[in-house]
Amino acid sequence: MSRVTLSRYLIEQTRSHNTPADLRFLIEVVARACKEISHAVSKGALGGVLGSMGTENVQGEVQKKLDVMSNEILLEANEWGGHLAGMASEEMDNAYQIPGKYPKGAYLLVFDPLDGSSNIDVNVSVGTIFSVLRCPEQHLSQNDALNEQAFLQPGTKQVAAGYAIYGPQTMLMLTLGDGVKGFTLDRELGSFVLTHDNIRVPETTAEFAINMSNQRHWEAPVKRYVSEMLAGKEGVLGKNYNMRWIASMVADVHRILTRGGIFMYPWDAREPEKPGKLRLMYEANPMSFIIEQAGGASTDGRQRILDIQPNSLHQRVPVFLGSKEEVARVTGYHQE
Ligand SMILES: O=P(O)(O)OC[C@H]1O[C@](O)(COP(=O)(O)O)[C@@H](O)[C@@H]1O
Ligand SMILES: [Mg+2]
Ligand SMILES: [Mg+2]
Q1: pLDDT tens digit string along 252-309?
Q2: Residue 168 and residue 221: Cα distance in Å, rounded?
Q3: DSSP string covering 23-51, please?
Q4: Which domain holds residue 187?
Q5: Cα separation, 112 vs 133, whole angstroms
Q6: Where is the domain boundary, 145, 168, 196?
Q7: CB 155 less than 6 A from any atom of ligand 1
Q8: Known PANTHER family for this protein (predicted)?
């Protein structure tokens, strides 16, 4: 069997689907950075990479050493590639402009450098989530400093999105807007190899993922939906549901891409002023693009996530994504 590496797949895309060459190079650079992060994560205590930095990010969350390292790896790898005008990250207060360069690259890269990092010290799968947007024309001129405004585009404008998952295997899941492909890192070859073609999320499911400890703080539609699932065969939904919660969005979404399910992180009343826990730009948008491209659905309970017009870089959002039928059900409950 001839192996299709990520590079070969991207070259084919350039030839047959007119994927721009600079987008192809950009994805290659991100994939290379993910290999480096995978290597750092896999070293664990041997590499002295576990534990916290003793700092907080802009959102007041404790930064792990690997959060900061992963962020630096992505910045350094992409800074001089020539394909970007700027980057934004969950771990940086402000948008990052590629220094001293004209003309600027055509794209913007947005990422959660290490998702699920609270799981690092207990050796559970974590990952890198990324999203690629076109830099709006007016921000490409020589004199215009790149600011947050350039990034505030709805998820429908993404030209590519993906995540790398660092688990028993390191995988890269990618969409260029034409389905979802899965690549597994072959460590001997040093390449991501296409192993999962045409990934589809089943439309129905009997598996849900939510942090149940927040149940008492949820809104009524979410309480209703989860209690109906818990009622099982004897309840109104007429079937037994299974529950999983890894507390790493990449790992929970990866399971859903593999065998279906619904993932929920709703608004809750612990911090009522926060719309949700997950970040629109770094987590919800790229994952929603991937899930939709695999035949699933994604909403904030009221509207399609990809249609939301962002108003700030670090904006948060409630998330309901996965198998179409279940996402439609819980979204419908919010509308009743
Ligand atoms: O600990 P909780 O509240 O269940 O939250 C888990 C969620 O938080 C996250 O870890 C947030 O991501 P970060 O690790 O990038 O901050 C998601 O991956 C996950 O779904
Ligand atoms: Mg995250
Ligand atoms: Mg993170």
Answers
A1: 999 999 999 999 999 999 999 999 999 999 999 999 999 999 999 999 999 999 999 9
A2: 36
A3: HHHHHHHHHHHHHHHHHHHHHGGGGT--S
A4: 6-196
A5: 15
A6: 196
A7: no
A8: FRUCTOSE-1,6-BISPHOSPHATASE-RELATED, SEDOHEPTULOSE-1,7-BISPHOSPHATASE, CHLOROPLASTIC
Query: ipTM score here?
Result: 0.97
Length of the chain: 336
Written as one string, the DSSP assignment of 112-151 is EEEETGGGGGGT--EEEEEEEEEPPGGGSSSSPPP-GGGG
* 118 Cβ inside 6 Å of ligand 1: yes
Angle between helices 249-259 and 285-293 (to 10 degrees): 10
Residue type, 116: G
Q: From the CB of 247, is ligand 1 less than 6 Å away?
A: yes
CATH number of the structural domain spanning residue 236: 3.40.190.80
β-pair partners for 183: 172, 194
- CA dist 216 and 268 (Å) reads 9
